[in-house]
Design goal:
The protein is of the alpha+beta class and 311 residues long. The protein contains eleven helices and ten strands. The strands form four sheets. A four-stranded antiparallel β-sheet has the order 6-5-7-10, sandwiched between helices.
Length: 311
């Protein structure tokens, strides 16, 4: 029997989080702005939490009145999201979708509990991200066609970082670009891929032919995967050399098709042990993700591959 840790600095149980309606989710996000100490929001993120939450509210309100819009994606240059820049620790990143904003919030609010494990904290935190987005921008019928709602594939990575000579646990969450229409998805994907380029994680000049092979085998280009922002955040930490390698060696992660593990009628998620029995629910890294993991000198692919883990 799994005893789940509490979330958001011990203030919220998993059951409470999964039962929140959209209005309560937004209130909770507002509390992260107004009660940053209570929720132990990371210092570097505090000044950026209000514009991030304002962007979520803008998307939520627009989707209620304009459901024909692609949920969660910004298409006009005047949008809040066109300028939204947030930090992960001391490094700044631009975000373009509601899913990325929610995932960033989950990555910077509250310390990781000392009792945290994959089963009782990291996996359910990832599922909270999916459920929050599914309620903020639910699938709905628009002109006889189903608006698809949030992306299905979510990722979570956790690692250890040394701060002032003490080990600190960290967690980062991400979502893929599975659901929007092609033009919108391509815009967000190119934006994400540009971030990978700017971070020197993609070395097109030396690896162009191999990169194209990877894309051909996976049918997806770089920037699509749920692992994109988690890897960007982690690869930005530490200076080149031993510090970065030590962080990367500690990283573990998992990815899943979240809708297969969430029961809407009861607002419950499958236990992680149960998830292993749900066909296609848990996912190994795709070839693109394997390539990105190979960028760093410390990432251990065995920390991400299901069959090589201790299950």
């Amino acid at each position: 029997m799994v005893v789940y840790a509490s979330f958001f600095n011990g203030t919220t149980t998993l059951e409470t989080a999964l039962h929140m309606p959209a209005t309560d989710i937004i209130k909770k996000f507002d509390n992260f702005v107004n009660k940053a100490d209570l929720y132990a929001v990371q210092e570097e993120a505090r000044d950026y939490m209000k514009p991030a939450v304002s962007a979520i509210e803008a998307i939520y309100n627009r989707y209620k009145t304009e459901p024909e819009q692609h949920p969660g994606y910004i298409e006009d240059s005047s949008s809040l999201l066109s300028r939204l820049s947030v930090p992960y620790q001391s490094n700044k990143f631009d975000l373009r979708t509601l899913y990325d904003i929610v995932a960033w919030i989950l990555s910077v609010v509250g310390p990781v509990p000392s009792i945290a494990t994959r089963d009782n904290y990291y996996y359910p935190l990832m599922m909270i991200g999916y459920v929050f987005c599914a309620k903020l921008i639910p699938a709905r019928k628009v002109t006889k066609k189903l608006n698809p709602g949030p992306p299905e594939v979510w990722s979570v990575m956790w690692f250890e970082q040394i701060i002032n000579k003490l080990p600190v646990k960290r967690v980062v969450v991400g979502a893929n670009l599975d659901k929007p229409g092609k033009s919108t998805k391509d815009d967000a994907k190119e934006f994400r891929k540009a971030l990978l380029d700017a971070s020197n994680i993609l070395d097109w000049s030396q690896k162009h032919s191999v990169m194209q092979l990877r894309r051909g085998l996976t049918s997806q280009d770089f920037g699509h995967c749920a692992e994109t922002y988690p890897l960007l955040f982690i690869c930005s930490l530490g200076h080149a050399g031993q510090e970065a390698t030590t962080i990367q060696r500690s990283v573990e992660g998992l990815a899943a098709k979240a809708p297969l593990l969430y029961t809407k009628t009861t607002a419950k998620i499958a236990l992680y042990e149960e998830a292993k029995g749900v066909k296609h629910a848990l996912m190994n890294p795709c070839l693109n993700c394997e390539w990105l993991l190979g960028y760093g000198e410390g990432f251990q692919i065995s920390h991400f591959i299901l069959k090589e883990r201790e299950y």
